[in-house]
Design a protein that fits this description.
heterotetramer; A mainly alpha (330); B alpha/beta (513); C mainly alpha (356); D alpha/beta (304); B: 513 residues; alpha/beta; Rossmann fold; 3 domains; six-stranded mixed beta sheet; 19 helices; 22 strands; globular; C: 356 residues; mainly alpha; ABC transporter involved in vitamin B12 uptake, BtuC; two-stranded antiparallel ribbon; 16 helices; binds adenosine-5'-triphosphate; binds magnesium ion
């Protein structure tokens, strides 16, 4: 037995590095991409461009954080885009009908988690595959959107307008919106929960092997239901942020957002089969998508189809490089 | 302890799975301060009884009382909360978490709801030290061998403030030292008043530690006995329900045939084959009809040798010859093409395809070798499957059950059958007898002898040195991921000498060259 | 358990029983709403009626879902099928539209071969990313899902290419022996895939790779090749589906053709009882699933369900279908209805003797 | 900092126009894009083009980036009506004038954009309805109309529906018996029409919110053994080439035009706005309607 101690030191370094390789690779490539932008396009180096990436993707970030929880357990949540839209729609229509902002916030923040909870229950108690349960959730939430109104509803409420238009910035005119701060707060809380609470660790355990987790006496069912609830909550917050962002609720907004979100999470190094990944990686994943989009707008010469082809191409280049770097370091 | 009331009683337990009656009216009781062995053949219902107790399965009938109070646990979590701590058969931990976490997850030390990582690691180290295991607790569990994982699972179970500790085949992947260490801890816990339910297929372990034995056969209770009142012989007879002749014959004829084929072309011949970080370069020849045993402590690199020979991992040093011709084995397909088969020690991750039926699992390797365009005719399948279900007494004998529904030992037999069907020229068996009951173990040993008589070469890896010695013509000894010796199995070789070779690193070089 | 359910076990135990029941219930509901729903008549030498419409319209979905079934059985997923439909349709229509004689059979066959070839190449691309480079399937195919739409639009230059070709039209609308050709193609494809998987060992190998990739590798299966193959097959199915869709309206719309069909296809596969985790698959189930989804769509139109509520309706039906299929759900319901004592504590009076 | 980077960017004094397009969801939209690109090139304007792929979020991002790049004028076709105030305010603060094209926004603060250039969807619906009322003046019995709506909730769908409904109210015989969304697409239009035909044995008129759905419905009508343009009168909106062809072939009966060719008008406006000239708050594109005869005459010279 004592001979084993010689392996002790060896096991430590590689495994630590290996766990972080995907995230580090993403970070490095993101910086490269940013550098390319700076060298190619006028005004790309403005600090505000970076801030804009955050402003424009704050809601995406929050939703992606929720999705990270779900994917870490090995599940998937397709309902997020629709729940975001539904939350925005509900807020807009309640505000329109004259309810006070505080009450609207509470109501809007309750709907998402409730739906998430129900989907989680369907998944856990009735063994319905997450893809299907959340697909039904997606249909439902989208249906609710058009049910509420089939045209977009503007928001004129004072609180919303302030949240939307308040600029927090430096004297030189660079600024971020309040939504960015909220999004970053969500990120920090999520990272904290995943690392330092039992719930967070259970999420990883369930993703690693849910059968084992069950036999280890972990509350698998509760955890599973909870992650969908968390995802629902994040989608609700994302929906509120989106309503700050657009100052309206539109029934067809955020269509297909779930795919962006999943892509961001996976690019951030979280494995779809669950059990491994970090919230910080997800932040990077969202930034990657944001920077790709910024690059394309700055270019300003691509027509519709080339835009799509180039997005696909950049995504491919990014994932390929990330993968190659990952292999090299293994 | 006899006078006291049992801490745990199970009465009239029945449990039926679709098509299988796993338990029928079984009674069981466990006293505080005893080690109680639960014995039975593969598929007798041991694991099922344990899972019925801890609420993994809902029982059809029967009652369970814990400390005189009737209970019906909803699952392991609730059972653990009531002081029933369990290590289930097959390692059930999370490979993606660190060792420390696996030990403590669900009851991490916390302050104000915040996990104290430093404390968690410290306590994990302490606990593992109790089992004499000194490993990096921050490394991911998945990077360690099955044996280490098994120890971690045990560490996890013994930390709980439990009244009842259940260990379902905890020693199957441990070597003798490891097991001895575990027994020391078990005795200590027993003396502290814990009731311990212990499942194993090693008879000497039972007699070494158990105070009482309950025997199951085919899902029914045979009886409960005090260990000292039940001779080993009648225990086995009670388990298998018939006279044990096979077993004895084997015991009487230890095979120690000297291999005299060193001059002929070897079937497989490695020259300084190695892989960085896995095994140091080694040179090994295996001839047709020869059984080569691999001995070594846990983690000494036996599995790695096997994987290199099968092309499961790619060697980055040296070369390999098959039939005298150079044969780079870069993947399993190439190895199989050359007549090599490999039965992995990790049957759940690398062996069975749980959703597929017994039949499909058995036919897999042969089908893969034939290619998908040439399906094996149903008649031929039936023939082969029936033959091996019989030969290995796989139970239940219904080849259309999903293999996941079989007991652990029977799954192992299915895997063995998978390779036997392909009629390989070299069969690599990594712990083939792990978790297999006495009867079946004897069958497998007999099989190995027959196969090698029929000209098949076998590389035999087992944690049980006696077994290795009994079957092998030659024994290669591993230490620290290096092949330190190759000993011919003549009259002078015994367990003691092998152990000494493992222990002393001095003449490693001479032996190898 | 209760005896009634026991008696019907052989029937209800069949894996396709519940999806089939759902389909029947949906058709019945439609018939109640509009008695003529199920009526079929012969008009101008071919069958005409809503059931025929459902079959014809579900043909592309069946095709896509067949390929998707194999992909899912290996534990993967293919999001790019919608884009592949659009690309293959666009290429075929473009080629035909540029020909001098759009009705010439050789033009149509060249167009089909060309488009099919491109689809195979794109399928191979997906397979390469997943099987060789090792990118997670959902992301690997997402690339082509995004870029492929762009390619389709590039081919059509953002316009809708309208063609006027009798033979091509026949793929979507033609009839053979009174039956729509589309149905016959779909059935033929289903039989082909079934033969390919069940008459050879391909099905077993696919299921094995999806069930435990590492174990399969160690059993000597070249899982890489199999995974590669299923993406190519999926692309081929999507290509044919693309022909049908475009032939159905005699025009190729790079933006709209096959939009979101990947979700419907995945839904069909899962309703049919194949797990997204990979492993066992059921082609029959997939076809039933596709029929259920098309019936659902047609129901929305036929009942003139308000577009505002049609998605809600779809959500309800999907969840109902899945619940009814879930053994856990049925167990719960029947337990609630049946025994009030969950765990009988009485022991059987007579012990049965079990032979050793 | 950003204040010193952009200012001197106008080394060449070409006018820079940032244009954010909805997407390329239809032939109409592509024609619109082409028109804008060609007109920009012809007018010597540097165009920064961005495609939002039908997502409002993307459009907002694009406008933000235009502001960063300090373009001279921003123009865009909003995906939806609401929700532009914040970003338009940022543009205003940066001193960049904004022109809306094709679709309007509902901002209360009208100073956020300079002008709107586009069609009047309500009018299109109304023109279609008025033609029908005119045609059916003599009808004694009820006239059954089915309506293929555009994408649920989109401005063109809502407005065309409204305009049409108002117009046909003039004749109580005209009745919409079924109305479903065909999502502006051929395939959907066809599928919906198939069900319309089965559920309603006597349909007299089809009103489709665009040509594509009408073209899809054509197929369904033919398959049902009816003669389009005769058994069922077909009215659509847009007048894209395929639609005009159908009209000229007698399969459609009437099309209200909705012209995508607003590039030249846009460039002119951009120059005026940049120069600080006053422009009207609303400019409508020049549009007309087509009957079968007019279509035959106009078809050879159609650009899209
Ligand atoms: N989940 C299940 N579904 C169906 N049958 C099962 C299931 N689990 C176990 N069985 C069957 O129940 C019987 C008892 O199995 P069990 O696992 O309890 O055996 P065991 O005594 O632990 O054997 P081993 O020594 O091989 O571990 C076996 O016949 C097995 O095939
Ligand atoms: N006591 C130990 N301390 C640290 N690491 C260990 C120990 N035992 C095993 N390992 C780990 O196990 C791995 C090698 O195990 P391997 O499977 O080669 O051993 P083995 O000889 O086949 O043993 P067995 O099959 O009996 O588990 C190494 O990665 C090593 O880090
Ligand atoms: Mg067992
Ligand atoms: Mg080993």
């Amino acid at each position: 037995m004592s001979s084993a101690s010689s392996t002790t030191a060896r096991a430590w370094r590689p495994s630590l590095a290996r766990r972080h390789v995907p995230v580090l690779a993403t970070l490095a490539l993101l910086l490269v991409m940013y550098a390319v932008g700076v060298s190619q396009y006028r005004a790309f180096s403005n600090v505000q461009v970076v801030f804009n990436v955050f402003i424009d993707n704050g809601f995406l970030l929050v939703v992606a954080v929720g999705m990270t929880f779900v994917i870490l357990t090995g599940g998937i949540d397709l309902s997020v885009g629709s729940v975001v839209a539904m939350t925005a729609m509900v807020s807009a229509s309640l505000l329109q009908s004259g309810l006070p902002a505080a009450l609207v916030l509470v109501v809007a923040l309750l709907i998402g988690p409730t739906l998430g909870f129900l989907m989680g229950c369907a998944i856990h108690f009735f063994d319905i595959q997450p893809f299907i349960a959340t697909l039904a959730g997606m249909f439902f939430a989208r249906g609710m959107c058009t049910f509420i109104s089939d045209a977009s509803i503007p928001i004129t409420d004072g609180f919303w307008t302030t949240m939307s238009q308040e600029r927090i910035g430096d004297p030189r005119g660079n600024f971020v919106s309040i939504s960015v701060l909220i999004a970053l707060a969500v990120v920090l809380v999520a990272a904290y929960v995943l690392t330092y609470t039992r719930f967070g660790r259970n999420v990883y355990a369930v993703g690693g092997n849910s059968q084992s987790a069950l036999l280890m006496g972990l509350p698998v069912g509760r955890t599973r239901i909870a992650v969908y609830t968390v995802s629902g909550l994040c989608s609700a917050i994302g929906g509120i942020l989106l309503s700050f962002y657009t100052l309206s609720g539109a029934p067809l907004i955020a269509v297909g957002m779930e795919l962006d979100v999943i892509a961001a999470v996976v690019i951030g190094g979280t494995v779809l089969t669950g059990g491994s990944g970090y919230v910080f990686g997800t932040v990077l994943g969202v930034l990657v998508l944001g920077v790709i989009q910024t690059l394309i707008t700055f270019d300003g010469s691509l027509n519709s189809w080339w835009t799509r082809i180039v997005i696909g191409g950049l995504l491919f280049a990014f994932i390929l490089l990330q993968r190659l770097i990952g292999i090299r370091f293994k | 302890m006899t006078g006291s009331r049992p801490v745990l009683t199970m009465t009239g337990i029945s449990k039926t799975f679709p098509g299988v009656r796993a338990l029928h009216d079984v009674d069981f009781r466990l006293f505080a301060g005893e080690v109680h062995a639960l014995m039975g053949e593969n598929g007798a219902g041991k694991s099922t009884l344990i899972k019925a107790l801890t609420g993994v399965y809902e029982i059809d009938e029967g009652t369970i009382t814990l400390d005189g109070e009737q209970v019906a646990f909803s699952g392991p979590m609730q059972a653990a909360a009531h002081g029933v701590s369990t290590v289930y058969q097959e390692v059930n931990l999370c490979p993606n978490l660190s060792v420390a976490e696996n030990v403590f997850i669900g009851r991490e030390p916390r302050r104000l709801g915040v996990i104290r990582w430093g404390e968690t690691r410290r306590r994990a180290r302490e606990l593992l030290a109790r089992l004499d295991l000194d490993i990096d607790v921050t490394a991911l569990l998945g990077t360690y061998s099955l044996a280490v994982q098994q120890m971690v699972a045990i560490a996890r179970a013994i930390d709980v403030r439990a009244r009842v500790l259940i260990l379902d085949e905890p020693t199957s992947s441990l070597d003798a030292d490891e097991a001895a260490q575990l027994f020391r801890v078990m005795r200590q816990l027993r003396d502290e008043g814990l009731g311990i339910l212990f499942v194993t297929h090693f008879l000497d372990q039972v007699y070494g530690i158990a105070d009482r034995i309950t025997v199951l056969r085919n899902g029914t209770l045979v009886g409960e006995y005090r260990t000292e009142e039940l001779p080993q012989f009648s225990l086995v007879e009670k388990m298998i329900g018939k006279e044990l002749d096979v077993l004895e014959r084997l015991d009487e004829q230890p095979r120690r045939v000297v291999s005299s084929r060193a001059d002929a072309t070897a079937l497989v011949d490695t020259a300084e084959l190695g892989r960085k970080g896995a095994v140091a370069p080694f040179t090994l020849r295996i001839h047709a009809g020869e059984v080569v045993g691999l001995a070594g402590l846990l983690g000494s690199g036996r599995t790695e040798v096997a994987r290199l020979l099968f092309g499961a991992d790619r060697a980055d040093h040296g070369q390999i010859r098959v039939d005298g011709g150079k044969a780079p084995l870069r993947n399993p397909v190439q190895a199989i093409d050359r007549g090599i088969g490999f039965c992995s020690e990790n049957r759940r991750a690398e062996g069975i395809v749980p959703d597929l039926s017994v039949r499909e699992n058995m036919m897999l390797a042969m089908q893969a070798a034939r290619g998908w365009l040439r399906p094996i005719p149903r008649r031929r399948q039936d023939e082969l499957v029936d033959r091996y279900v019989q030969a290995l007494s796989i139970r239940p004998a219904n080849p259309d059950l999903p293999v996941r529904n079989l007991s652990g030992g029977n799954q192992q037999k299915v895997l063995l059958a998978r390779w036997l069907i392909t009629e390989p020229r070299l069969l690599i068996l990594d712990e083939p007898t792990r978790g297999i009951d006495v009867g079946a173990k004897a069958e497998i040993q007999k099989l190995v002898v027959e196969l090698s008589d029929g000209g098949m070469a076998v590389l035999f890896i087992s944690a049980e040195l006696e077994e290795v010695l009994r079957l092998s013509h030659r024994v290669a000894v591993m230490r620290d991921r290096t092949m330190v010796a190759q000993l011919t199995n003549d009259d002078t070789l015994d367990a003691d000498r092998v152990m000494r070779t493992i222990a002393s690193g001095t003449h490693r070089k001479e032996v190898q060259r | 358990m209760n005896t009634l359910t026991d008696r019907f076990r052989p029937l209800t135990g069949h894996r396709l029983f519940w999806p089939a029941l759902v389909l029947v219930v949906m058709l019945a509901a439609n018939t109640v709403y509009r008695p003529g729903f199920l009526s079929v008549e012969v008009k101008e030498g071919h069958l005409y009626g809503t059931p025929v419409d459902i079959l014809r319209l579900s043909a592309p979905l069946i095709l896509v879902a067949l390929g998707m079934t194999l992909v899912i059985a290996t534990g993967g997923i293919d999001l790019s099928v919608g884009s592949l439909c659009a690309i293959s349709g666009a290429i075929a229509c473009l080629h035909i539209s540029e020909a001098s004689d759009q009705n010439s059979l050789s033009t149509v066959f060249t167009a089909l071969a060309l488009a099919f070839g491109v689809a195979l190449v794109l399928g191979a691309w997906n397979g390469l990313l997943v099987a060789v480079i090792g990118i997670q399937p959902i992301i690997a195919t997402l690339i082509l899902m995004v870029a492929g739409r762009g390619l389709a639009q590039l081919i059509t230059e953002g316009q809708i290419i309208t063609i006027n070709s009798g033979p091509y039209r026949a793929i979507g609308l033609g009839h053979v022996l009174t039956l729509p050709l589309a149905i016959i193609i779909a059935v033929a494809a289903a039989l082909l895939v079934a033969a390919l998987t069940r008459r050879t060992a391909l099905g077993l190998i696919v299921e094995s790779v999806g069930g435990n990739a590492e174990a399969s590798r160690l059993a000597g299966i070249r899982s890489g090749r199999i995974v590669f193959l299923v993406y190519v097959v999926s692309a081929a199915c999507a290509a044919i589906a693309g022909f049908m869709m475009t032939a159905n309206v005699s025009s190729a719309d790079g933006n709209a053709a096959g939009l979101w069909i990947e979700l419907d296809a995945i839904l069909a596969v899962v309703i049919g009882g194949t797990s997204l985790a990979g492993g066992r698959f059921s082609l029959g189930g997939t076809i039933l699933g596709a029929l259920i989804i098309q019936t659902l769509t047609t129901t929305v139109y036929a009942m003139n369900i308000d577009p505002q509520t049609s998605l809600l309706f779809k959500a309800v039906v999907v969840i109902a279908v899945c619940l009814i299929q879930s053994p856990a759900f049925r167990a719960r319901v029947s337990r609630r209805r049946g025994a009030t004592t969950p765990r009988p504590t009485t022991r059987q009076p007579e012990k049965e003797q079990v032979s050793a | 900092g950003n204040s010193d980077t952009g200012g001197d960017s106008g080394g060449d004094d070409k006018l820079v126009l940032g244009f954010s397009q909805v997407g390329a969801e239809s032939g109409w939209r592509t024609a619109n894009t082409t028109s804008i690109k060609e007109a920009a090139a012809a007018a010597g304007i540097e165009l920064k083009f961005d495609d939002a792929q039908q997502k409002q979020e993307n459009q907002i991002k694009a406008i933000r980036n235009f502001i960063q790049q300090k373009v001279d004028v921003i123009a865009f076709s909003p995906v939806v009506e609401s929700g532009w105030d914040t970003v338009l305010k940022e543009a205003k603060d940066a001193g960049i004038p904004v022109i809306l094209t094709d679709r309007a926004v509902d901002s209360a603060d009208k100073t956020l954009y300079k002008t709107f250039l586009g069609s009047d969807f309500v009018k299109e619906g109304r023109l279609a309805g008025e033609w029908l009322v005119e045609q059916t003046k003599g009808a004694s019995g009820p006239v059954n109309i089915v309506e293929l709506q555009g994408t649920t909730g989109s401005a063109p769908a809502n407005d065309r529906k409204e305009g049409f409904a108002k117009a046909i109210a003039a004749n109580p015989n005209l009745k919409i018996v079924a109305s479903q969304s065909g999502d502006f697409k051929r395939a959907d239009g066809k599928q919906v029409m198939e069900q319309f035909l089965k559920a309603n044995p006597d349909i007299d008129v089809l009103f489709a919110h665009n040509d594509d759905m009408g073209l899809g419905a054509l197929e369904a009508i033919t398959a049902a053994g009816k003669v389009p343009g005769k058994d069922i009168t077909i009215i659509t909106i847009d007048a894209v080439k395929d639609g005009m062809q159908a009209l000229a072939d007698g399969k459609f009966n009437f099309i209200a035009e909705c012209s995508p060719l607003l590039g030249p008008q846009l460039m002119e406006l951009a120059k005026k706005v940049e120069a600080g000239e006053e422009v009207p708050a609303r400019i409508e594109t020049e549009e007309t309607t087509f009957t079968q005869e007019q279509a035959k005459a106009a078809l050879p010279s159609r650009k899209y």
